[in-house]
C-alpha cells in the first residue's frame, strides 16, 4: 500500500464508456479511488452500490468516486448499467494503476495461492496527495467509512 503524504500516481485508462480518465484531470477535487477484485461478485457489487447510493453526498463534499479493477471496459459497462452506477469504473487489464498503487498481491482462497487485487481505498486530496489509505477494507462498510473520512 502507498504511504500517506505521497503524491498519488497518475494514470490514463479507459472508463466503462471507453473515455480516457486520468487522475490529474481531477486536481482541485478530492478523489475516493477504490480498487476492487472483480465486477459482479457479491462483495464488489455491495461496495459499488454503497458508493452509488451515497454518491450525491460525495459530490456535496467536493469528492469524486472512481472504481478500478482489471475487468474489461465491456464488463464495466454491463456492471455499471446493471447497478446504475453514476461514477467512473476504470478498466486496468494491464495492471498499470493496480501495480502503481501497490494493490496487486498474493492472496489465499480455499488454501490456494494466487495473485489478485486486494480491496483497497485511497482518499486523494485536491493537490493529488494521498490523504488516507485503507487496505483490506470491508466491501459493505467502505462507502460510509469514506464518506465519514471526508
Structure summary:
With 150 residues, the protein is α/β, with parallel strands linked by helices. It has 4 helices and 9 strands.
Description:
There is one protein chain. The chain is an alpha/beta fold. Helix content is 29%, strand content 31%. It has a five-stranded mixed beta sheet. A two-stranded antiparallel sheet has the order 1-2. The longest helix has 19 residues, at 42-60. It is globular. The model has no long low-confidence stretch (mean pLDDT 95).
SSE map:
Elements: E1 12-14, E2 20-22, E3 30-35, H1 42-60, E4 63-69, H2 73-83, E5 88-91, H3 96-100, E6 104-109, E7 112-117, E8 120-124, E9 130-135, H4 142-149
Parallel strand pairs: 3-4, 4-5
Antiparallel strand pairs: 1-2, 3-8, 6-7, 8-9
Helix pairs in contact: 1-4
Amino acid at each position: 500500500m502507498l504511504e500517506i503524504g505521497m503524491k498519488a500516481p497518475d494514470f490514463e485508462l479507459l472508463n466503462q464508456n471507453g473515455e480516457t480518465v486520468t487522475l490529474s484531470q481531477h486536481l482541485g477535487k478530492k478523489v475516493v479511488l477504490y480498487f476492487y477484485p472483480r465486477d459482479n461478485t457479491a462483495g464488489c457489487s455491495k461496495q459499488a452500490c454503497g458508493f452509488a447510493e451515497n454518491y450525491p453526498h460525495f459530490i456535496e463534499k467536493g469528492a469524486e468516486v472512481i472504481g478500478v479493477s482489471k475487468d474489461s471496459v465491456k464488463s464495466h459497462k454491463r456492471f455499471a448499467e446493471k447497478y446504475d452506477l453514476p461514477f467512473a469504473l476504470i478498466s486496468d487489464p494491464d495492471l498499470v494503476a493496480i501495480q502503481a498503487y501497490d494493490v496487486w498481491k498474493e492472496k489465499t482462497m480455499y488454501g490456494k495461492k494466487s495473485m489478485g487485487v486486494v480491496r483497497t481505498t485511497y482518499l486523494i486530496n485536491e493537490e493529488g496527495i494521498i490523504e488516507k489509505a485503507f487496505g483490506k477494507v470491508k466491501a459493505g462498510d467502505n462507502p460510509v467509512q469514506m464518506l465519514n473520512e471526508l
